[in-house]
Amino acid sequence: MTSANPLRRAGLKALASALVAAGFAVPALAQNTIKVGVLHSLSGTMAISETVLKDTVLMAIDEINAKGGVLGKKLEPVVVDPASNWPLFAEKAKQLISQDKVAAVFGCWTSVSRKSVLPVFEQSNALLFYPVQYEGEELSPNVFYTGAAPNQQAIPAVEYLMSKDGGGAKRFVLLGTDYVYPRTTNKILRAFLKAKGIADADILEEYTPFGHSDYQSIIAKIKKFSSEGKKTAVVSTINGDSNVPFYKELGNQGLKAKDVPVVAFSVGEEELRGVDTKPLVGHLAAWNYFQSIKNPTNDEFIKKWSAYAKAKNIAGHKDKPLTNDPMEATYLGVYMWAQAVTKAKSTDVDKVRAAMYGQTFKAPSGITSKMDDKNHHLHKSVFIGEVQADGQFKVVWKTPGPVVADPWSDFIAENKGKANVPAKSK
Q: CB neighbours of 98 closer than 8 A, spacing ≥ 6?
C-alpha cells in the first residue's frame, strides 16, 4: 500500500498537467495547498497605503495555517506588485487567476484599480475581496466589498460636520485626487448637501492628480473661501502619498481645525506616519475602525500585529506598529473567506459565494461584522476620530450600531429602482 502512494501521486500530477495543457482549469483543491492571490501596490504612489495590506493578508494566512489551514490544506499566498499602475492590475489579476490558479484574490485600494480588474474577475468567475471604502455605484457578484459604502462613511461624516457638535459647517470644500472614487463620492455629497439646503455657491470642488505634492495654492484658495462669512469644512478624498504634502502644507499655513476642520476618508494612522501631527490636532477622519478603539478583540489584534511586524522585520512597523481601517477590513475578508470555504467544503467560486452570505466575524472595531445576506457588503459601524498629537485618533462620534450598506446611493437620481443585489446572484 505504501509503495503505491508515490505512483498514485505521480499519476494525479500527470493528469493535472494534462488538463492544464488541454486548457481546463484545475481547482485549487487538486493541489497540496490552496493558493490565494495578493494584489496590492508595493511600489509607486499607492505603496504608502497598500503595502501594509499585503502584510495583513500574510499575517492572517499564517494564523489560519497555524490552526491547520482550510479543508486540511495550507494556504499558499501568491504576491504580485501592480506598482500603482492601473492597467497592470488587470494583467496581474489575469496572472493570478489563469496562471497561478488562485482560489481567491485579496487586493486593490483605488477604485480605478478595482475597475481595471473587474472585467477579469467577472469573465473568469473568480472572487476578489476589496478592503477599502469606495464610492458605491457598483455591485458585482465576483466582488465582496469589506470596506465602506458612502452611507457607511461619507454621508455620516458630512452630517457630523453640519451638526452642532461638528461645528455647524455651512460651506464645504470637496478636495480629492482626480479619479473615479473622489469624483463619484463628491457627486453624491453635492446632491446630499443640496437636499440639506446648501447652495452651489457654498461648495468649492478641487482635484489634483495622483502623486501631487504642491498644495500651497490650494490651501490658500481654501483659506480665502473660508473667510467669506460662513463656517467652512473640508472633505478630503485625497489618496496615496499626496496626503503627506497636503497635511504638511495645512500645518505650514496654520489652517487649524477650530477654524476649518478637515475630514478625510483615506487618511488613517499609516498615512500620518512621518507627518508632524501637532499642528493637525482636531482635524478629523471618518472610518469604521481606529487603532485607539478600546476592547479586548482590538487589544488582541494590535498585539498580534505588533508581534508579526517585529518577527517579519516589517519596515516602520517593527518599531512603531500601527493598525488601521483597511487592515481590519482585509483581515475580516481573509477569515470570512476561509470560513465560507470550510462551510462550502470546496473552493468552487459559486459554492463559496453562496457560503459567504451571512458570514460573521468578531471585528477589532468591537462589533460582530456580518456579510449581508444579499448585497456583498459588510454591516459596519461608523466612527469619526480627531487627530491627536501622537498620530492616533480620538473617537468623538459613532453610530449606535452597524449600518447596512447602500451601494446604489439614493442621492443619485438614476439609481431609482436599482436593487441592492448583484444581478447574477439573485
A: 124
The grid coordinates of residue 228 equal: 467669506
**Does residue 115 form part of some domain?**
yes
Cβ atoms 106, 330 nearer than 8 A = yes
Give me the domain span that covers residue 127: 27-148+294-313+325-379
Q: What is the pLDDT of residues 325-354, one digit of tens each?
A: 999 999 999 999 999 999 999 999 999 999
Cα-Cα-Cα-Cα torsion 56, 60, 66, 72, nearest 10 degrees, comes to -140
Q: Is residue 43 part of a domain?
A: yes
Measured in whole angstroms, how far is the alpha carbon of residue 268 from the centre of its chain? Answer: 11
CATH number at residue 40: 3.40.50.2300
Written as nine digits, the cell of 117 is 480588474
Nine-digit cell string for 260 = 476649518
Q: How many domains does the chain have?
A: 1
**pLDDT > 90 in the chain, percent:** 83
Query: pLDDT tens digits, residue range 201-250?
Result: 999 999 999 999 999 999 999 999 999 989 999 999 999 899 989 999 98
Query: Is the Cα dihedral 194, 198, 202, 205 positive or negative?
Result: negative
Whether the Cβ atoms of residue 264 and residue 236 lie closer than 8 Å to each other = yes
pLDDT digits (tens, 9 = 90+) for 84-112: 999 999 999 999 999 999 999 999 999 99
Q: Would residue 57 count as lying in a domain?
A: yes
Cell matching residue 242: 499626496
